Amino acid sequence: MAVNRFGPTFPRLFTAALLQELSFMLLIHAPGYFSRLGASEGMIGVLYAASAAAALLMRPLLGRVLDLTHRRTVILVTSVVNIVVIGGLATTQVWGPYLWGLFLAQRVFQIALFTTVLTYAADAIPVERRTQGLAIYGLSGLLPIAIGGFLGDVVIAGFGYRSLFIMSAVFATVAWFVFWALPVLPIRGPQPRRGFWAAMVQPNLLPLWLATLLFSVGLESLFTFTRTFVEDRQVGTAGLFFATYGVCAAVTRILGGRLYDRIQHRPMVVGAIVLYGAGLGVMAVAPSTPFLVAAALTTGMAHGAAFPLLSSEVVNRARESERGSAMSIFTSIFDIALVLGAPVVGFLIDWSGYLVAFGVVGVALTIGALAYGAWDRRLHEPSPAMVGEEAG
Predict the structure, then answer these.
(1) For 334, which of 146, 216, 298, 372 could close a Cys bridge (C-beta 3.0–4.6 Å)?
(2) CA 251 from centroid of its chain's CA atoms
């Protein structure tokens, strides 16, 4: 597949995003560093929850900045701050306010950078290939999950956590130079900008917020509790689950990408969320490793389709002048699922076990997906081929 079919900037954008995600994924090992400094599991959880809350509070400002400023400018500025903050983490020695401030800043700028680069990708990819292009672009985030986890283990074992932070900063720095080579793209459409909250309550975007919330709750349930699940059930390993999940998601995007711009998105979104719910159901009853692998295949396939479909629909329906706000809202829903959904699922696990917890989430996803489909159908939205039209 020729990547330049997604626009002349796509190869550079993909390379930069891949390097930036590698930088991010190395930091999934940060809790191990915090633990060595004496932090309890509870305190680490509080720090991550605080970072998600800070990122949510930042979203309206980020949306406004993205709507009024060139995305490339925002990428370059947030990248520099992110590099400095990661480098600062390499200078920490104790669990205290200095480390907390650096980590909170890193998480906020990481999320801002992710949202901005995704918005730039939506701007740069030709309209007629937007969904397929976003699906392929998404591989820049899936591949580093496996690479970053393995590479981080090697670096920590051989050189320690300080070297991990330095390597993360190096990847981010190389990414900055690739981002620098990107052109400035126009940001304003023919319609006036109404603001962040107007985009949030735009009628034809509301069903998409519901669908994204459903998908993100399922996603966060798995990513938060799979490790404890396999240890409790003594079924397979978390590494096996996520490797299978990531490969299946990537293959789904590569093989299915050509279809995404040719058929209606609504039925595929409904099907993907229902499939994710079914995968959680398989996970809930998994008595052996083959069932765990089946759950990973099912949910990975659903993830491979759901994210590019939802992100493309958000771009298609939002006003061009409010695209930054819309994408900021879209990515914020994943933080909401982490802040609110993960504790609820955790409580269900404590109260009645994984069978009930994963089963309840799976059923909720299925019912919610059908409700989304019915709601969205009533709005009589145009097909994905008629992109750019605004019905809000």
Answers:
(1) 216
(2) 18
Tell me how far apart the alpha carbons of residues 30 and 24 are, in angstroms, rounded to a whole number.
Answer: 11
Q: Are 265 and 312 in contact (CB under 8 A)?
A: yes
**What pLDDT, in 10s, does the model give residues 146-162?**
677 678 878 888 888 89
Cα–Cα distance measured from residue 249 to residue 243, given in angstroms and rounded to the nearest whole number: 10
Question: What DSSP assignment string belongs to 246-303?
Answer: HHHHHHHHHHHHHHHTTS-HHHHHHHHHHHHHHHHHHHHH--SHHHHHHHHHHHHHHH
List, for residues 282-292, the tens digit of each pLDDT value: 988 888 889 98
Q: Residue 274 corresponds to which amino acid?
A: V
Helix (H) or strand (E) holding 331: helix 323-336
> What DSSP character marks residue 266?
H
Taking every pair of Cα atoms in the chain, the longest distance, rounded to a whole number of angstroms, is: 58
Distance CA 212, CA 330 (A): 7
* pTM metric for this prediction: 0.77
